[in-house]
Amino acid sequence: MAPDYDVTVVGGGPAGTAAALALATRGRSVLLVHAPGGPPPVGEALPAAARMLLRDLGVADTVPGDGHLPCYGNRSTWGSARPASVDSIHDPYGPGWHLDRALFDHRMRQAAAAAGVDVREALVRPHACRLDGTWSLALEGRTVRCRRLVDATGRRAAIATTHGARRLVGDRLLALHLTLDPADAADRTTLVEAVPDGWWYSALLPDDRLLVAFFTDADLPAARGADRVRLRAALARTRHTAARAAGRRWPPGAAPRRAPAHVSRLDTVHGPGWIAAGDAAAAFDPLSSQGILTALYTGMRAGRAVHASLDGDTGALSRYAADVDAVVAAHLRNRHAYYGLERRWPHAEFWRRRHADAASAPFGPAPAGGFSAGAPGLGGPPPAVSGPPGA
């Protein structure tokens, strides 16, 4: 039977919508499926350089738009107890954003629909069948046929891992995060504070609440059994993060959420008839502040690669895989350099691991049962210290 679409994109976040836009603007018929409900997306930092990608996708005039907060700089205590800062006035692209992620993702889907993408809210079973070059997917109450699949399902990589790809991991980083109630505040910078067993991140959200997150390894005592009381006690031991959170009410009964934040990637980012983009292809340490930016980039590149392969370009998918490899390699080098700048606690296990890891440390298979339940990884800023560009 003839396919209903050229391409079905599974996942309606930044990577999926970028892929759908790249395909639709090249004349492809595209179905974009995003799952209903679920926890709200967590990552909120979008660097100013994203303006170039949004322009290339044709949505710079409508996305992000109103409803987000500009980010005027980054502050950190990293490698020294003395705070350092980087002001957005020195960025040629201007300030970045603290996003309302639900609003950002919604506008990206609206832009995709305006470009001709068929946007549907539905659950998709990852066990799609491929016969004679055509995929058959079971949606709620309907079977859809298409020529290619784009997996933009986040760290789960639900399509790719069901069809032969393996998830490889490079560390055990975990985020414990909580959003504190609104208060009068004019500070629109991000703040990173290194501590002996990890690091803290905080940022003001568009609704004036404060996102506070603690990053440590999932197997270290600081993460085991972490609850509201222990997280609050750990926050009180910080200096700058605690001062920023002072006077804000903790939501009654709210417990910190756990989110995987480890570096990971697929052993292959494409297979017969499918391609992975965004966190499904490779997920990075949130210290880089590149999660959403990289999702937009790999989504756009995956869409272009699929379009070219449908036109008969046999090398398009391999070139895309090489691009992902290059992005991962650059991230690992910069990540290693940045963690190497913090030397105040050389015998603390969290930092000892980061100092021992080589920039090209090999990935290994994901542990049985994964790392934790929760939302996708957070996006935070690079430390405001002299050193290499953002990881």
The residue fraction in helices comes out at 25-40%
Strand content: 25-35%
The CATH class of the largest domain: Alpha Beta
Give the low-pLDDT segments. Answer: 370-391
The CATH topology of the largest domain comes to: FAD/NAD(P)-binding domain
Total number of strands: 22
In round numbers, the mean pLDDT is 88
Number of helices: 9
- The CATH architecture classification of the largest domain is 3-Layer(bba) Sandwich
Number of domains: 2
CATH superfamily of the largest domain: FAD/NAD(P)-binding domain
- Which structural class do the helices and strands define? alpha+beta
Q: How large, in whole angstroms, is the Cα Rg?
A: 21 Å
Keyword list:
391 residues; seven-stranded mixed β-sheet; single chain; alpha+beta; 9 helices; globular; eight-stranded mixed β-sheet; FAD/NAD(P)-binding domain; 2 domains; D-Amino Acid Oxidase, Chain A, domain 2; 25% strand
Describe this structure in words.
- This protein is α+β, with helices and mostly antiparallel strands and 391 residues long.
- It has two domains: 244 residues, FAD/NAD(P)-binding domain, CATH 3.50.50; 88 residues, D-Amino Acid Oxidase, Chain A, domain 2 (2-Layer Sandwich).
- The protein is 27% helix and 25% strand.
- It contains nine helices and 22 strands.
- Strands 1, 2, 8, 9, 10, 11, 19 and 20 form an eight-stranded mixed beta sheet that branches. Strands 6-5-14-15-16-13-17 form a seven-stranded mixed beta sheet.
- Helix 7 packs antiparallel against helix 8.
- The longest helix has 25 residues.
- The C terminus is likely disordered.
